[in-house]
Amino acid sequence: MSPSNESKYYKRAAPALGHATRDECFAFAPGYINLNCGSFGATPVSVTEEVARITQEIEANPDLFHRLDYVDPLNEARALMADYIGADINEVVLVANASTGVNTVLRNFEWEQGDTIVS
């Protein structure tokens, strides 16, 4: 399933690609062309703005957030992702990065002598 502009997951139409996307979605310096998305991927401005908003919410009352308030937004995000990929919410776990996700999965297999990882 690929997302489309009519998807319930998007609040607005997808931007054009290329310079228009760079200028609309990222905070790159004028004239900078980012070619290294693997090592230091750029975060879209909309994401950094939401991170700043959530950080302020957390810092306003850290105990409340970490004890109670984070649970509902976390489960909402998991439910959206589960729906998007056609999985059950209990099969969706959010991790910090791809390396952590792969490490978590591989460490939970019951490996036996002679097993092979194909990549």
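That was protein one. Protein two is written in the same sequence-then-structure order:
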Amino acid sequence: MAAKRAVLVGINYAGTKAELKGCHNDVARMHRSLVDRFGFDESDIRVLVDADGAAPGELPTGANIRRELSRLVGDARPGDLLFFHYSGHGTRLPAETGQDDDTGYDECIVPCDMNLITDQDFTDLVRKVPQGCLFTIVSDSCHSGGLLDKTKEQIGHSTRQNQTEQRELEDRSPSSSSFRSFLKETVRDVFESQGIHLPHRGHRQSGHGDDGDEEPRDIDTNTTTHAHIKNRSLPLSTLIEMLKEKTGKDDIDVGSIRMTLFQLFGDDASPKIKKFMTVMLGKLQQGQHGGVVGFVGALAQEFLKAKLEGKQDEEFEPAMNQEVHSVQEVYAGTTARVPSNGVLISGCQTDQTSADATTPKGMSYGALSNAIQAILAEHGTVTNRELVLKARKMLSKQGYTQQPGLYCSDEHASVAFIC
């Protein structure tokens, strides 16, 4: 008999610069929905939240999330239904290798310990899903439109091809707002890539390029109340501050984020991070220092320090043991075989942010998560395409500018959500 199994992750980052309010509620509501509406067994749903009193194995650390997802996929059989819901921060790591074809970002989710999980990690995971088994991912986080690399974009404009088509449509508009929006996005990306955060000034929930630590705002939710919102984006500047606090080091910058993550988490770091370190160590040992922005200098210092202290093998063993078939595997925006058994429903596009809202009565939730529950309550069974289109319409009506996306094969766009 086919199994229905799920992993649900909600991270509020309580007491940190990145604190959110609605992520635990999102997970609790989705848990009830899976059991009551979709017939999941309680024992087949694994929940990871950063709640007070949670056991170490139940905290949403990078290692725990990866372990649960690996188990979810590793135990799957043809006909099984797999589901992953994530509510928390998202971020984007800019390219660091300086290669000509390294032109993209690594979109990431942000576990409670900052041990980032990258888009390529998700893509590699979905490629392991057996034929006849469907893995649905809902990511109510910022920059989530890019979490499944090279998967067909059914609804959205996160991919380069669809971004080009979107801009061509906008360019035919008599308004110059599209160019201003593009220019602002480009400038913001340049500053963010240097670890400098530019606060967004505006009275609506963010759309392109907005970030998560600006002043929270109120928004009309069309439910006779006003929700207080902030964004589920972790700017690089905030990530760097939190890594400095975690490591006690003051010299962390954008060019050393990946190395810092590797040093912090070692073999538990993202496979993409370990592959990156493998390639960079190879370049260093071969004397190829050119074209690596802000990285090789710091890496060389650490490598020489480890060598002098006799810890070279110990410090870099996880990277040296990481199998890399080609250097393209480490690039942001790398080309990869398209995963065919995955469905991604994103809270927004890769250059947008997703809202974390709190009503005057104290109810907190993610905008996408709340929309999904409202749509299911009203319509019951809906296809993946119908769900995303209805969510877009609902969020726009409520005043949000985030645009949920759908990334999957043509066949799976018309399949019923979850069931």
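The longest helix spans residues 177-193. Keep this in mind for the problem set.
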